[in-house]
Amino acid sequence: MRGLVRWSSKWWPGALPLLVLWGLAAWTTTVPLEADVAARASAALKDTVLDKTQIVVAGRDVSFTAEAFSEEGRRSAVAAVEAVPGVRLVNDGTRLVAEAQPYVWSVERDVVRVTLGGATPLPASKARLLDAARNSLNGVEIADRMALARGAPQRFDAAALLLVDQVGRLKEGKITLTDNKVALTGMARELGGREAIAAALKNLPDGFSVASNEIKAPPYVFQAYKDPVAVTLTLTGYVPDNAVHAALAAAAARKFFSEKVIDNLKASIGAPAGFSNVVVAALGALSRLSTGTLVVSDRAVMLSGDALYDEAVNQIRAGLAKDLPQGWQIKTEVSVKPAAAPVDPTVCQQLFADLLAKNKIRFESGRATIDPDSAGLLDRLIEIALRCPSATVEIAGHTDGDGDTGFNQTLSEKRAQAVAEYMARAGLPAERFRPVGYGSTAPVAPNDNDEGKAQNRRIEFMVR
Amino acid sequence: MVTLASFYWGWLLGAALLGFGMGWIAVVHRGHGLSKAAAGWLGLLLVVLLGLALARVVPGRPGYWLDLGLVLLAIYLAGCSVGSWLRYWVVSRHESAA
User: Fold this and answer.
1) Domain OmpA-like, which positions (chain A) (predicted)?
2) Within its chain, how far is the Cα of A378 from the centroid?
3) What pLDDT is attached to residue A218?
């Protein structure tokens, strides 16, 4: 042992190469060691729920900053880093996630995207809400503006997930969850959406309630488009129920005798009061146009298109205004179709006959009042009459064989007279029309069946 | 520590070999050894450095370098001891044989 002490006094020359060795070792191992320690520390925190985790290693010292969701979680995270092999010191920069008071979370939908914002309690609930949003809003862009905060109410996730599902029913709007109160604003995507959301809100978890629900229903829209080229009438939009649907389809078929009716109507609740009557009246107005569009949106009626002659524009406008109930608005943008080229009286006769073969002027039963359904037909007769201004036209009224001959004679005269007056009101010279009643003296079919009688009740236009 | 040793075992081995060589030479070396005063000062410096390392007061990278230096020194001294003792054993056996 004494020898060892003696020899050790001669060990010092090796210290110089040792210094060099030390320098080289420090030079080459520092950075890899730091990376290794950082990787181990990150691995140790893999299963710990933290936010904004940051690990900076200098030598063997770890500067560890993070936001934890509970004091216990914070302590165990620090302990996990301290336990990493190779770590000398942990500079603890951890703290608890801020507490939100009040606890506000929201989901907002606009034209472009759905934005989730506000506070969520854990990264897992945040991810779950984003997933739910992606699933229920297929293809819509989802923006995440959510931050993490403590202090969420009990069963926050369940409530927020239910609200995320409702956003699919909104066209635009915002749902806000403040503590355990839900506030909704915006507009439903479809008719009935508002009601569906209200029903779903009844399933909110215990303790949650709806503070305000200002979701608006979308406008109740009915549209009709008369296409003179395809000779179609296209109906789209909503009707209150199947009975009204059938009634409107029947009215459209009566008023648009030559057009094919394409019926794309859907039944939905939410129609304004008086919807059915207004639509029937407006369809009557549309039937008098050569081409046109009718839009009924909530309580606003918009009619645009081309009338067949000048006076029709005024008649249509005044007629619609008269038919609309209180509280409804009307807007008409009706112009006049350019007049067709004049033709020979013989051509006129042919046109009258062709048109009247397709449909007949209708009257109220047993009376000489023209059925409003015939307005479209009459306008077309007037249009033809305007094309042969020199021709004089005999308007011949006929009845079926039923009833008293004298009554039938008078009725046929009065009906012919009513049509002649209608022509005069359209601006045609009254002297061009000669109303004549034939009673039941000139039947075109046997009077022994209903079909034949219907054929016999008629108005004919004869160019003289 | 095992983790650290596995990380720079090459350097430790280098220090051990250096120590072994120095210890091997020291037994038959004719030169002057360190004076007692210098050895005392060096010992004091070593104690201070050891104290700093154990108290972990040197932060970050310098702290790591200090640890590394002390470990290398310890291994070096251990290598010296083994080298000197082995040389002494070889020399004394040789002399007794002669």
Assistant:
1) 350-464
2) 38
3) 85
